Amino acid sequence: MNNRAFAIKLGSLTLAIAIAQPVLAGGSVKATTKYDGERPRRTVLKMDADQYCATSNKKKDGSPKKVGSQEAIVNKDGTVRNVIVFVKDGLGDAKFEAPTEKAELDQKGCMYHPHVQSVQTKQPMLVKNSDATLHNIHSFAEKQKAFNFAQPKQGDEKEVSFSRPEFVKIKCDVHPWMSAYVGVFPHPYHVVTGKKGDCELSDLPAGEYTLGAWHETFGEVEQKVTIADGEAVEVEFVFKP
């Protein structure tokens, strides 16, 4: 709590009185994302074109592990994974410094990890190859210069960044089943839903906002929220077929 000091003069005596001032805390938004339709069926990815890939995914006991498609993962309760929830409008002309903490895109088991993530403009992202096979990283950016480079060896690393906001698709030209998405924003208020289809935006200044929820298959929905200082707001985004 902040203290604001006031001086009161009583004759030749001056008293300093400190009056407590409240500290304004940032608000938060707890978001749940749902799909209002028939639950999509995931398919088993076929990796036989590369023998390394075909045998690289294993269970704890060493037996082969099947890998499912990731473009539409809907839980039994209808909640949706891999949705990017973000502030779409309401921050005005505020400017934000790019984080120095590196995001990461790993290639492991001939899959991109994570499949969906969000970063800030000019934030560094480390792309690395944890597989003992050739991978190619090809971004399909439309609002900025795309990149396309190979990582032929296990342990290869390269740092990249994005200068403009957009949703960028990334694919491997060697393994067609490999894809990932990166949501790029000019501010830090963005997050991806996890296994339970929910997420939280924290430290939002008080105000009125338009929030967006983006999914690679289901598209984008939005809604408006008003947040007071220190308030926790709950919202639900619903994607329709």
CATH topology: Immunoglobulin-like
Structural class: mainly beta
Domains (count): 1
Count of DSSP H/I helices: 1
User: Regions with pLDDT < 50 over 5+ consecutive residues?
Assistant: 16-24
User: For the record, what CATH class applies?
Assistant: Mainly Beta
Encode the helix/strand succession as letters: EEEHEEEEEEEEEEEEEEE
Q: Could you tell me the radius of gyration in angstroms? A: 23 Å
Strand proportion, as a percent range, falls in: over 45%
Helix content: under 10%
CATH architecture: Sandwich
* End-to-end gap: 49 Å
Mean pLDDT: 91
State the major sheet.
5 strands, mixed
Q: What would you say this structure looks like, in words?
A:
This protein is mostly beta strands. The protein has one domain: Immunoglobulin-like (Sandwich), CATH 2.60.40.420. 2% of the residues lie in helices and 47% in strands. It is built from 1 helix and 18 strands. It has one helix spanning 51-56; strands at residues 2-10, 13-21, 27-35, 84-89, 103-108, 111-113, 116-120, 125-129, 135-139, 148-151, 157-160, 166-171, 179-185, 190-192, 198-204, 207-215, 219-227, 232-239. The strands form 5 sheets. A 5-stranded mixed sheet has the order 7-13-12-9-10, with no helix packed on it. A hairpin with an 8-residue loop joins β9 and β10 (148-151). The longest helix has 6 residues, at 51-56. The radius of gyration is 23 Å and the shape is globular.
